[in-house]
Amino acid sequence: MAKEFRKHEIFEQKSEFERRVLQVDRVARTVSGGKRIRFRALVIIGDRNGRVGIGIGKAAEVVDAVAKATKVAEKNLINVKIVDGSIAYRIELKMAAAHIILKPARSGTSIVAGGTIRAIAELAGIKNIVAKILGTANKINNAKVTIEALKKISE
Hints:
This protein is of the alpha+beta class. It has helices spanning 7-11, 62-75, 115-124, 139-154, and strands at 18-31, 34-46, 51-59, 78-79, 91-95, 98-104, 111-112, 129-133. The protein has two domains: 7-75, Double Stranded RNA Binding Domain (2-Layer Sandwich); 80-154, 2-Layer Sandwich (Ribosomal Protein S5, domain 2).
C-alpha cells in the first residue's frame, strides 16, 4: 500500500536551519479582465551558529511563496563573525531609505532591537546587541541593510 502524502507534508523537509517568516504581503497587478493576485514572502533562515540568510519569493499561494523564499535564503547565506556573543564593532549603514545602527553589547544585555534586526540577530546566533532602525519601516529594505552590515563586519 502506498503512503498518502498531504500537501503540507511535502514542504516540511527537515533542515539544519531554523526558518522565520517575517512578512507575507498580498500583491496585485491589473491585467485586462481584472486584477491578478499573488503573495510575496520575506523569510529569514539561520542556524544560530553564525550563518544567516534572507530570501524573497512570490507565488500564487502563500505556501509556495514561503517555499521559494526559503530556497532563495539558502542560496544567500552569509557567515557572521560573532565575538563573545556579540558583534565585533559598531557599524552604521544606510542603503536607500533604510538606515540602521548596530552596536556590540556586554554579556547579559540580550537583543535590544526592532523586529527585523531582532529576527536576523537571533537566527544568526548573536546573543547581545543594541540596534536601532532610523530610516524606513520597510521590512525588506531593513533586512537587506542588516545583512549588508553583518557582511561588512565579518570581512
